[in-house]
TrEMBL record:
GO terms for molecular function: hydrolase activity, acting on carbon-nitrogen (but not peptide) bonds, in linear amides. It comes from the Bacteria. The record marks D193, T194 as: Cleavage. Substrate binds at R222, V223, G224, D225, T245, G246, V247, G248. This is N(4)-(Beta-N-acetylglucosaminyl)-L-asparaginase.
């Protein structure tokens, strides 16, 4: 059984957003809803990523083009150490990237543990459009990207290398994600992880994208949930879409994003569906769940959206014709 949905709390990074918070709090139990087109994405850096998607959506463009353009923003951001080119490496010093994309017709493409290519989301789209496959991994993914004109380049930045060498001093393998929760402040742009993005275009079609460098200092070859269709991302044009962030292993075990979409199919709101999926993870492994973060973000075909996480500190960004830089604090199980 789903618990009664709790009050949606919004926190704002600026005075403007604080005013907005009061307005949204007044609505309480109504699902948050956006006019179409709309794009939503995980974490504070979703605000900037949404701009990339919005430049396409506002002109009547396709959701698929929008999510690819949006995901490329954090992938290119040199200050972002959890997505794309400046991502932190694995424990052996390799930057290995995971990404997937899915459109309104159920087409999907993905790359996993790919090295030396700065925009995995665009390679994932090419896998979807140019091959009979869904997923390419490791060297094969890099080879495919290079054959299709992507630049083969070293991704490890001096800053990431320095952080890795610092980690090597203790080499303590504790893949804690979102460990900054204690100090979390909304509006602090660069402290978070995977970008998951969902867009509904003016025609009401949905697409999604998910891209990450995964856990810093992971074992070489480790693949998280982000490139796995159904785990890190799932969209269904009859229902809506969902994406996840946090410790991918727990999301994979529960096929998280697919679960959220199926719960919406059964009539639950995006908020309720995200909450139920998080609680499933907690119920299965309560001891592990105490120490990790997992968050889901979802939207349905009506433009209703919601999010829920295990730990405090999850945020998501919403962008539509009314407002392009809305940042919302997601609800969480642990406060
Ligand atoms: C992973 N889910 O590789 C990703 C990482 C992440 O918030 O989302 N962090 O497991």
């Amino acid at each position: 059984m789903l618990n009664r949905r709790k009050f949606i709390t919004l926190t704002a990074a600026s005075a403007y957003l604080t005013t907005l918070t009061d307005k949204v709090l007044a609505k309480t139990k109504e699902p948050l809803k956006s006019p179409l087109p709309v794009v939503i994405s995980t974490w504070d850096f979703g605000v900037a990523a949404n701009q990339g998607a919005w430049s396409i959506l506002k002109k009547g463009g396709r959701a698929l083009d929008a999510v690819e353009a949006g995901a490329r923003i954090p992938e290119a951001d040199m200050k972002n150490h959890s997505v794309g080119r400046a991502g932190y490496p694995d424990r052996d010093g390799h930057v290995t990237l995971d990404a997937c994309i899915m459109d309104e017709q159920g087409n999907c493409g993905s790359v996993a543990a790919m090295e030396n290519i700065a925009h995995p989301i665009s390679v994932a789209r090419l896998v979807m459009e140019k091959t009979p496959h869904v997923m390419l991994a490791g060297d094969g993914a890099t080879q495919f990207a290079v054959e299709n004109g992507f630049k083969n380049e070293k991704l490890l930045t001096p800053e990431s290398e320095k952080a890795w060498k610092e980690w090597l001093k203790t080499a303590k393998y504790e893949p804690t994600i979102n460990s900054e929760n204690k100090d979390y402040k909304l509006g602090n742009k660069y402290n978070h992880d995977t970008i998951g993005m969902l867009a509904l275009d003016a025609k009401g079609n949905i697409s999604g994208a998910c891209t990450t460098s995964g856990m810093a200092w992971k074992l070489h070859g480790r693949v998280g949930d982000s490139p796995i269709i159904g785990a890190g991302l799932y969209v269904d044009n009859e229902v809506g879409g969902a994406t996840s962030t946090g410790v991918g292993e727990e999301v994979i075990r529960n096929v998280g994003s697919f679960l959220v979409v199926e719960l919406m199919r059964q009539g639950h709101s995006p908020q309720e569906a995200c909450e139920a999926a998080v609680k499933r993870i907690i119920k299965k492994k309560p001891e592990i769940a105490k120490k990790i973060q997992v968050g889901f973000l979802a939207i349905n075909k009506k433009g209703e959206y919601g999010a829920y996480a295990i730990q405090e500190g999850f945020s998501y960004a919403v962008c539509n014709a009314e407002k392009q830089d809305l940042l919302i604090k997601g609800e969480s199980f642990y406060k």
